[in-house]
């Protein structure tokens, strides 16, 4: 639709607390279309292209209610919107179905839609019926977001946390292409503040491509900023949207001086539904482009290469994880298919050139996380070199000290997994960037210090960008005192970790806190590799596997017997992990 959606920025005067379950929350199985009435549906092929400003052709009606009906009027066909269908199953009860990422059958997580025709004070119950994650922060207190246009106009109140009777539960199994998919539901009750208002509901604070463009126009039109910030187009996405890169550094007295500066690379929004990454990025840019002495020192010391939105197509159409290739871009940094994955191909190429020209001190990709609270980092783990292993942990530890009520060092992980080889973090590390991280901000909030049990606001997320800059100054301080202090603390922490590993209770039961044990934001194993259209072509050309002869099978028999007598992979991995951990702390 052509509607231009704009939301005011607002932060509550007091932190918004997590929801406290009462134990009385209902977990009803979906009634479906058979027992309800479809009141909104975009199931027909409505997608034409990934661009802002509305469709150039006629728009088909997607709302199916009478003029005098008291039923809610839904809409999601605006930038970054996501709602596939709404079914009314009671006077104030609605079952909602989210649209999977384009050209995939999964990644239902991000929601953002509009409602009208409501009654103030009525208890409306919404149930999203096709979520695919087995665990969620909604199980441990996270609340959805509500925005009222009338509240914004009359009282200057923007997005706020809302909802009661919140429950996340396993609902049913669904068979798709001979595979059984377990679906989960999220249900919550909400009261709208005004009659006949226009309201929006969302998983996280929206941050659209249009929002970024407005911000960058402000940057480009400021003569003071343009003296040290160059904005250009890195490449164009599959749908032809510009992918911007900012080069930020103070102008040296000579070309030689500029070339000797070390580099820092920061990117965000490779996953379109992780809007919290964009809010951190805006905070980072506000600090870096500001007039403070610290900002000037950063610009004097480094050359910053910043790509604020890697997946504009996915952002525009309301995807959660993938690009229009139907693939997770953060599993395809090693690709040679420039035309299918232009944004990550050009980003990797840019970093590769930088590494050959100068010392790249740090690479960081900003993300959001659905199953862990707080802010934390994932880093890499250099094999063999114990000193380097500790050094890779220094920057995240410093972050935890600068943002001690939001950033959790305990939640940081340092691993190089085979399944993550195509990520930006590991790809840049293999190019030679020793400090290569993803920084994850929770969709929920903090469990630390004076912010324990409260949601993050946009101001909180932007402050993480400020702290990132502050930590970079600490990390590169010519005075090594802070570095030495952190290294000493890390040695103590790793010794403690060894003791905990050796005394681990394998038979202990699973607790609620296990919802935060995952090191992965999402399982993207089926979103790796070739884009969808090339994958189908490859599968059609695949040759049948040649059957082995009797002699060949006999030759392989001793090898199979040997492998059967080897210890199990689980036991071998556990022993290796303990040995490695012991060696690291010696």
How would you sum up this structure, described in words?
α7 packs across α13 (about 460-475) and α14 (about 480-500) runs antiparallel to α17 (about 570-585). Helices cover about 30% and strands about 20% of the residues. β9 and β10 form a beta hairpin. It contains 17 helices and 21 strands. The chain has two domains: about 35-45 and about 65-175 and about 180-200, Immunoglobulin-like; about 210-505, Zn peptidases (Aminopeptidase, 3-Layer(aba) Sandwich). The model is unreliable at about 505-520 and about 560-585 (pLDDT under 50). The strands form four sheets. It has an eight-stranded mixed sheet with strand order 12-13-15-14-16-19-17-18, with helices on both faces. A six-stranded mixed sheet has the order 1-3-4-6-10-9. By secondary structure, the chain is of the alpha+beta class. The protein has helices at about 30-35, 150-155, 210-220, 225, 255-260, 275-290, 295-300, 310-315, 340-355, 385-390, 395-400, 425-430, 460-475, 480-500, 530-540, 550-565, 570-585; strands spanning about 35-40, 75, 85-90, 95, 110-115, 125-130, 145-150, 160, 165-175, 180-190, 200, 230-235, 240-250, 260-270, 300-305, 360-370, 375-380, 415, 435-440, 445, 455. The relative contact order is 0.11. The chain starts with about 30 loop residues before the first helix and ends with a helix. It is globular. It is found in: Cytoplasm, Cytoskeleton, Cilium basal body; Cytoplasm, Cytoskeleton, Microtubule organizing center, Centrosome, Centriole; Cytoplasm, Cytosol. This is Cytosolic carboxypeptidase 2. It comes from Takifugu rubripes.
